[in-house]
Design brief:
This protein is of the alpha/beta class and 507 residues long. It has three domains: 2-187, 3-Layer(aba) Sandwich (Rossmann fold), CATH 3.40.50; 203-352, Cytidine Deaminase, domain 2 (3-Layer(aba) Sandwich), CATH 3.40.140.20; 383-499, Cytidine Deaminase, domain 2 (3-Layer(aba) Sandwich), CATH 3.40.140.20. Helix 1 (13-23) packs parallel to helix 9 (149-157), helix 13 runs parallel beside helix 14 (331-337) and helix 16 runs parallel beside helix 17 (461-468). Helix 18 (483-492) links the parallel strand 20 (473-476) and strand 21 (496-499). The strands form five sheets. It has a six-stranded mixed beta sheet with strand order 8-13-12-11-9-10. A six-stranded mixed beta sheet has the order 16-21-20-19-17-18, with helices on both faces. The protein has 18 helices and 21 strands.
Length: 507
């Protein structure tokens, strides 16, 4: 029996090779792995160049790409012609392949890496050996993950490494190479076309979850291999493990607060903001966000795009929250929040806010792909369509509300006042119902507030309701064939109305 070992990550490889040697495998290796096994492991090992009769060339670019290697791996043991050819060419069978790859993924995470350095870290021989061994798993064992050394060793000792288990290892190997290739393709992407004909994505599992949205569903959390940011890089400082719904809600909260440059606090329930406020005084921002919906805040998620102070931590501790996440925490703030053993406290590095190029939505047997929805920072194209121009305070509230409504499920309506959310109407099949929900939620606070709508008003009835309820300014995309009717209704109620020309559906 022969094992070929060629690994970049040498964790556990000496111990595994010793086990293989004890079982009766002869060992073949390359370059640095050969030196490790020979000198650190004091193992009898043959260098691959001695097996092939050819030296490594081109600085090691070509060393395992040889019939003596791939013939030994790919030969089907149940095909006499294959065995005869091996014998005629003097090629020995290779029964076990242990390979992991150059760290291309780790290297390209360094923003200073050059294209030349990145290309040099693309492994060619490794993936080729992995694919060859995985293709022939009926006769060859392939291992790409050091975490598999232990159980494979035990099964080999007991002669219990069945074909089903080798198939599982082959599946893992092909996934490993697929992720590697997808990452390279993403790195080399030229953006010549927004959507390539063949879409490959590269995600790596962070951990399994207890269950999905409901207990009968299984779930796991995966991170983008290249652009991992946000929740995928969060550090948990306290509390129970995160659930599927925790991560979903926390991500919605984090995406909301990171849309604002000013100190911002968001309270999220079922991915929808029930409270949101910006204020230079972080405690004031929290208090106003909480007051936006004190009932819905219970059991919610709080996101803060600044360092949580001791004073804010004391205020947070007065309410039951599932999660608090922020860029950082004062030491005393962590002590205070950690008094609640089950409260999940997450720290999300501010420099980890990396957005994916695409927004993916799963549908039956397919994926919808779109570019990420951004709010344009330049508002110079906005059209003040009414006779009355917004006051400076109304304009600030309108800009705030326009960002806020982007994070509310369509049909979405939000009311804002003093840079704080005071009413939300979300996820309704018609816009009028969303308007009514937002107005009712705001109560008496709606007088003097502004309204934002994620899409145009098809009829002026919503504008009329807003005017009768004390709304003083409205921001909406416009674009309806009845825009003029809405404009006329706004003028009738002395409402200032802005048409942005850009909608923000969130289904």
């Amino acid at each position: 029996m022969k094992a070929l070992i060629s690994v970049y990550n040498k964790t556990g490889v000496v111990e595994f090779a010793k086990t293989l040697h004890e079982i009766g495998y002869s060992l073949v290796s390359t370059g640095g792995t050969f030196k490790t096994l020979k000198h650190e492991g004091n193992l009898p090992v043959t260098e691959v160049s001695d097996l092939t009769g050819s030296p490594e060339i081109m600085d090691g670019r070509v060393k395992t790409l040889h019939p003596s290697v791939h013939g030994g791996i790919l030969a089907r043991r149940d095909v006499p012609k294959h065995m005869e050819e091996l014998a005629a060419l003097g090629i020995e069978k290779i029964d076990l392949v242990v390979v992991n790859l150059y760290p291309f993924i780790d290297k390209i995470r360094d923003p200073t890496i050059t294209l030349e350095e990145a290309l040099e870290n693309i492994d060619i021989g490794g993936p080729t050996m992995i694919r060859a061994a995985a293709k022939n798993f009926q006769f060859v064992t392939v291992i790409v993950d050091p975490n598999d050394y232990s159980w494979v060793s035990q099964d080999l000792k007991l002669s219990n490494l069945t074909q089903d288990k080798r198939r599982q290892l082959a599946e893992k190997a092909f996934r490993h190479v697929s992720l590697y290739d997808a990452t390279i393709a993403k790195y080399l992407e030229t953006k010549v076309t927004a959507f390539p004909q063949e879409l490959t994505i590269a995600y790596n599992k962070l951990y399994d979850l207890r269950y999905g949205e409901n207990p009968h569903q299984q779930a796991a959390f995966y991170a983008n291999v290249i652009n991992a940011g946000g929740l995928a890089t969060a550090k948990q400082l306290n509390g129970k493990p995160l659930s599927f719904n925790n991560i979903l809600d926390a991500d919605a909260a984090w995406q909301t607060v990171t849309d604002f440059d000013q100190p911002c606090v968001a309270v999220i329930k079922h991915t929808t903001p029930c409270g949101l406020s910006v204020n230079e005084d972080l405690l004031e921002a929290y208090n106003r966000a909480f007051e936006g919906d004190t009932i819905s805040a219970f059991g919610g998620i709080v996101a803060i795009n600044r360092t949580v102070t001791t004073e804010v931590a004391k205020a947070l501790n007065n309410i039951f929250y599932e999660i608090v996440l922020a860029t950082d925490y004062e030491e005393q703030a962590i002590t205070i929040l950690s008094q609640k053993k089950n409260l999940r406290i997450l720290q999300v590095p501010s420099n980890s806010i990396i957005e994916d190029d695409w927004d993916l939505k799963k549908v039956s047997s397919g994926i919808l792909v779109q570019t990420v929805d951004h709010i344009a920072k330049d508002s110079s194209s906005w059209n003040i369509a009414t006779k009355r121009v917004p006051t400076s305070m109304e304009m600030m509230d309108l800009q705030f509300a326009w960002k806020a409504v982007k994070h509310v499920k369509s049909n979405a309506i939000v009311l804002a006042k003093n840079l704080s959310l005071i009413g939300v109407g979300a996820g309704q099949p018609n816009r009028v119902t969303s308007v009514d929900l937002a107005l009712n939620k705001a109560g008496n606070k709606r007088h003097g507030s502004v309204l934002a709508s994620d899409a145009f008003f098809p009829f002026p009835d919503s504008i009329e309701r807003a005017g009768k309820s004390g709304i003083t300014a409205i921001i909406q995309p416009g674009g309806s064939i009845r825009d003029q009717e809405s404009i006329d209704m706004a003028n009738q109620h002395n409402i200032a109305m802005i048409l942005t020309g850009e909608r923000h559906f969130r289904h």
